[in-house]
Amino acid sequence: MGITRRDFMKTSGVGLGLGLMGGCAPAIKGDFAPKTGRRVVVVGGGWGGTSAAKYLRLADPSVEVYLLEPNQEFVSCPFSNLVLSGVRTIDSITFNYKGMRRYGVKVLHEAAGAIEPDRRRVRLGEGWLEYDRAIVAPGVEFQWEQVDGLPANKDVVLHAWKAGPQTVALAKQLQSMDDGGVFVMTIPPAAYRCPPGPYERACQVAWYLKTKKPKSKLIVLDANPNVISKTALFRAAWQAYPNLEYRGSNKVVKVDPGAREVTTEIGDRVKYDVINLIPPQRAGTIAVEADLVGADKRWCEVNHLTFESVKHKNVHVIGDSTIGLPVPKSGNVANAMGKVTAVAIAHLLAGKEPPPMAPGNTCYSWVNDREAIAVVNAYKIEGGKVVQIEQKLTPGQSATVGQNAIAWATSIWNDMLG
Amino acid sequence: MRTTQTLVGTVALLLALGWSTGAVAGPLDARGASKSLTCSACHGFAGQSPSATVPILAGMSADYFKKAIQDYAAGRRPSTEMEPYAKAVIQAGLDDVAAYFSGQKREPTAITVDPAAAARGKTAAVQCALCHGPDGRGDSAKGVPDLRGQPVGYLRNQMFLFKADRRSPADERLKPLKALMKTIPDETLADLAAYFSSVR
After folding, report:
1. Sign of the C-alpha dihedral, residues A153, A321, A404, A375?
2. DSSP string covering B28-85
3. How many CB contacts within 8 angstroms connect chain A with chain B?
4. Of A266, A402, B18, B131, which has the fewest beta carbons less than 10 angstroms from its beta carbon?
5. pLDDT tens digits along A151-166
6. What predicted TM-score, i.e. pTM, was given to this entire model?
């Protein structure tokens, strides 16, 4: 069921000049769209939020679904490391939200201000949207303050860990580096978004340097003692990159852009020409402010069958913000969580018991311009919990796995946004 | 009067937006639908794969689907991706998932092929007709799959796997098929894939 902005304005009688697909809006005041039926508000249009919104409309077309996402475009984190190496363009991993309208999802390109679980509403501008259930999918936020010198230098010390302008900017820094330069990337302690992502990035940067700037060097400073995902496969891939120097248990605690230098926990100073500092992470700010995080103040615990927060009723949390399931913080998992939550909420709103549904995870990493490796995790529900059945790794790297990666991306982007 | 207007307005609003107070059956109410949702990440919603190398599950015969899952789970069809997922499907309920996908209407792949390759493939396809029929529709009663409209990359890859005896190596029923594949050059297998993918 599609709904145009004009229809919406006409039938809802809302006189605000807020475009359903964005635009300059005057201040939103009061109840933005008085609720007349059952409504779910989804906060965040990433891998989890889009999947939840679309599949909720498929599960029960009578439920009104709002998706709140400030960005006009969706940029895929998976495959974004290939933009650094110039193998792909940012445009090839950038999509719009128009496909969501076909399912009757009401996309508002606005940032949700806060969640008020007691009043069942999401703050929006100076007003609010009421909900029967909310799905919070804000992704991760960086703990800037954990690295001395980082808060004041966010613009020059790039993370490129949320695909978009920073990805392009870091690619430019890499391309502009003189041959013979040193590229330093830092990996935060687990848990963080996409466990194999930094090691894939190391492959892409090393491949680029080997191909285009053979006198240059990549130093990887990892806060973790060893490669934390696909360890043997990455180690094997790195045999092709003598320009890559990996240092485990090297947590970076300070950055000084003036001196072009980072400092590790044990006091080692490492000079760089280009820095890529991936900061430590926690759940998105809105989840922290809504008191959805646990005692660690970082991540949100949820029911494994419904993804309802263990702290607040009628608020579900999905994606990278969650903790406690034996799953990685991956886009594929967020997509699966979105679908499970959509079906669960459709059942709960209809007064029915949600069916047990387990997520799945397929995760590809590119080790050069055409070869990839993969890890696959399958799960089941046992005793009300998500339990892993099996984890399987590709026997090695290959172009065939690379082709499978492309097929996976084509399909899952469509599963969210198409 | 005012109440009537409000009521009419409310009803119009509900009709316009398709809202009602009760739950409305969606496309996920079919048998096995919720158990099949994990699959859509790679195989597309309702098994309608949008990519070049992942098969369309929509309209696949339940018996063929079940054999494939059992072979993947047991490692007879080696696949890093499918072995774990096949085990998950068996845990969730193989009959339900097979019933769901076989009940979905298959739309041919949107991935286009080189018309010249498809034309060459059509000529070469006479050797496949004995089992798959002249247009590749197969025979589900005999466990012969319908090849029409499957993505070209998937068909090509499977023929290469048969030719190299890397798919279900000990399966007696596949021996004649593999013997035939060994006689066909790789380029012709690619043409055959293009042809069967293009059949509507």
Report:
1. positive
2. T-STTTGGGGGGHHHH-GGG---SSSSPP-TT--HHHHHHHHHHHHTTSS--TTHHHH
3. 150
4. A266
5. 999 999 999 999 999 9
6. 0.92
